[in-house]
Amino acid sequence: MDNFTFHNPTRIHFGKGQIARIADELPADAKVLLLAGGGSIKANGVYDQVKSALGDRTVFEHWGVEANPDFDTLMPAVELCKKEGVTWVLAVGGGSVLDGAKFICAAVPYAGDDPWQILVDAGASVKSALPLGTVLTLPATGSEANMASVISRRAIQEKLHFLSPHVFPVFSVLDPETTYSLPPRQVANGIGDAFCHVLEQYLTFPAQAAVQDQFAESVLRVLITEGKKSFDNPTDYDARANLVWAATCALNGFIGSGVPQDWSTHTIGHELTALHGIDHARTLAIVLPALLEAQKPTKLAKLVQFAERVWGVTTGTDEERATAAIAHTRAFYESIGIATHLADYDVTAEVAPLVAKRLADRGLTAIGEHGDLTPERIEALLRAAA
Ligand code: NZQ
Ligand code: ZN
């Protein structure tokens, strides 16, 4: 196990009715920016609960944060915060609203000339941020308890991330009942995204990290069983509660502590969203099986462990077990309605050299836990995903 420092400062209020806790979290004199998406929180009653908890605090609202939050949608909110002297941001919605809020929190006190630089330098220039609270309505990204944010800029066809300890939410409310209104497509996306988050941190090479490995395997098994149950029975509270908590545990820093990490499926997947607007989780479902196939030799030991402990595959050679694990993974995505080939999204293999070049242009010529995914190999694996 590698050395690590683990610190996750986000306070989680989990369960039914917990939106009321916002009243205890925000100072009475807080000037709050309430950030929201396209309106789902009005339709499902979450907005009313939030407003009630906010009481008579001063609240400004900024609506319209889209899936894959756009820099140009967020900048007016940054200006609003500066003009009104906002002291807290409250994000209410899915990962896109939360990520957009993190960007706003970092951009308001930002000392540089151009806040896009926060994305260009991946957060290195972020020195402070407004405090952030969140009410998460879509279990998927882990954004409710991590320091990551992914921002798109359609005007220049980019999708980049930043990391900063300053944007960990101070608190997050996770009430599984707020997710009952999700359409099946978004429930599936959430399961598929969280599943891949675990694999990016687990499916590398052995690091003698038994706690992290076995915790990761538990989260994977819960996503497979409870996730599927929750997909099939959206208002089964216990199944949904387990899905919500699994998605948080998948990317709150715990299972990734002291172990090698990959993240190349995400790096390649973000390009497919930037170029073709494919849902984040669906890009992962396209890239992941092809990437695991391409990386089978270097991931073999963990693929065999994954096969046995998560999929119950206990016979065959190591090569056969690894192949079975990849097949099970693809079938799992397909079982929740997520197609796993480029062609399913009307994208041809012509995208493969383009993605490889865009990554190379950003200096990403050696990604993956061994730095062995070169532009040529990225192109080849994407062609295999056609
Ligand atoms: O805009 P509204 O009306 O709220 O509708 C949203 C949106 O259309 C809807 N929705 C959310 N909660 C709902 C609901 N509809 C009905 N009932 C509810 N309770 O769902 C749609 C998708 O929402 P979005 O927030 O875009 O989905 P998700 O949570 O999957 O977030 C995806 C974004 O997160 C980034 C992705 O790249 C993408 O931009 N990621 C962030 C990460 C992080 N911060 O750590 C890591 C991830 O790997 C990921 O990259
Ligand atoms: Zn993801």
Automatic annotation (TrEMBL):
This is Iron-containing alcohol dehydrogenase. Keywords: Oxidoreductase. CDD domains: BDH (cd08187). Residues 9-176 form the Alcohol dehydrogenase iron-type/glycerol dehydrogenase GldA domain. Residues 193-385 form the Fe-containing alcohol dehydrogenase-like C-terminal domain. It comes from Actomonas aquatica. The keyword Transmembrane does not apply. Transmembrane segments: none annotated. InterPro entries: ADH_Fe/GldA, ADH_Fe_C, ADH_Fe_CS, BDH-like. It holds the Pfam family ADH_Fe_C.
